[in-house]
């Protein structure tokens, strides 16, 4: 199979690669829920999973379609609301503006690494919007939802997932949030 973007040697439907996916991601793929219909897994080197090294190796053109999924925590009083945010890799998440307002929080911040990995069951540097904990909001920047194809983590540092932007917007609890991604 040829990946729709990038020059990957090893691309297959994600359903054929369940053994390479962390349990929550594999379960979401097996269930075949919203957003997983066209999901492709590309097997990649975990040593170059970070965006800059990844695009330098697999093709600079991937910077246009790469997206990062980060976990944030919104706080209001004693309550805390976790959420995932998905923005293009060349942008940063507007945590103190768009995220805070959307979650109705007084304060919002990036989640500590231990929380992000412990609650999602995914590896740091590979967190993906596929297979997030039930009920967590997935805030998606419109530029991601409008992209023909999006490259995201696979839940592990080894491998990436490719799916159409419209499928990202169909994932469970996905909400498009204007202004979520800020250009550098």
From TrEMBL:
SUPFAM superfamilies: YbaK/ProRS associated domain. One of its GO terms (molecular function) is aminoacyl-tRNA deacylase activity. It holds the Pfam family tRNA_edit. It comes from the Bacteria. Residues 46-167 form the YbaK/aminoacyl-tRNA synthetase-associated domain. This is YbaK/aminoacyl-tRNA synthetase-associated domain-containing protein. It comes from Streptomyces albidoflavus.
């Amino acid at each position: 199979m040829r990946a729709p973007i990038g020059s990957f040697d090893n691309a297959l439907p994600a359903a054929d690669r369940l053994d390479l996916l962390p349990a929550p991601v594999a379960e979401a793929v097996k269930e075949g829920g919203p957003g997983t219909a066209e999901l492709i897994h590309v097997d990649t080197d975990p040593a170059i999973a970070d965006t800059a090294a990844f695009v330098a190796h697999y093709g600079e053109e991937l910077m246009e379609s790469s997206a990062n999924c980060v976990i944030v925590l919104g706080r209001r009083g004693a309550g805390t609301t976790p959420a995932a945010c998905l923005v293009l890799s060349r942008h940063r998440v507007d945590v103190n503006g768009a995220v805070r307002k959307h979650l109705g929080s007084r304060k919002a911040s990036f989640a500590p690494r231990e929380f992000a990995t412990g609650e999602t069951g995914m590896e740091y540097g590979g967190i993906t919007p596929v297979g997030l904990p039930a009920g967590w909001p997935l805030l998606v920047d419109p530029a991601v939802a409008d992209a023909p194809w999006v490259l995201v983590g696979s839940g592990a540092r080894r491998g990436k997932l490719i799916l159409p932007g419209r499928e990202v917007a169909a994932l469970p609890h996905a909400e498009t949030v204007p202004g979520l991604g800020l250009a550098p």
